[in-house]
Write a structure and sequence with these properties.
alpha/beta; globular; four-stranded parallel β-sheet
Length: 132
């Protein structure tokens, strides 16, 4: 199983190329992709997202939020802040979801590197693009 960050999902939906897009496409095809709840929320927040796309991405199985998740995400974010690195709330929640389940994360967002150092997030880094 593998998950994808919003940055890679956007690239995929826009038809961009890159290793992350290929991995996401393959994982979807092989039914090996799970959706991080925060990523689903970010994607569905786009008012221009076509309803058929919204329906399709909503069908990807969601990662379960385990007991103590919010506290672990806060501790993870604090650990990253202690190293004087960026730790956006959404990124910390996405990282913690993947860490809890032991699932690698596909992303184009290099900010996730801070979470690999703080908590051994298994990261598959593609081409960096804009933040949603």
């Amino acid at each position: 199983m593998i998950a994808a960050d919003t940055s890679s999902w956007i690239a995929f939906l826009e038809g961009s190329s890159g290793e992350d897009v290929q991995l996401l496409d393959r994982a979807l095809e092989d039914r090996q992709l799970v959706m991080v709840p925060v990523v689903l929320t970010e994607l569905l927040s786009d008012p221009k997202l076509p309803s058929d796309v919204a329906e399709t991405i909503s069908e990807v199985p969601l990662i379960e939020v385990a007991s103590g998740y919010w506290q672990r995400a806060a501790a993870l974010r604090a650990e990253v802040f202690a190293t004087r690195r960026k730790a956006r709330l959404g990124d910390a929640l996405i990282a913690q979801s993947c860490i809890d389940q032991g699932i690698p994360l596909i992303t184009r967002d290099r900010d996730f590197r801070a979470f690999t150092q703080a908590a051994k997030l298994n990261l598959v880094l593609g081409i960096e693009t804009h933040r949603p």
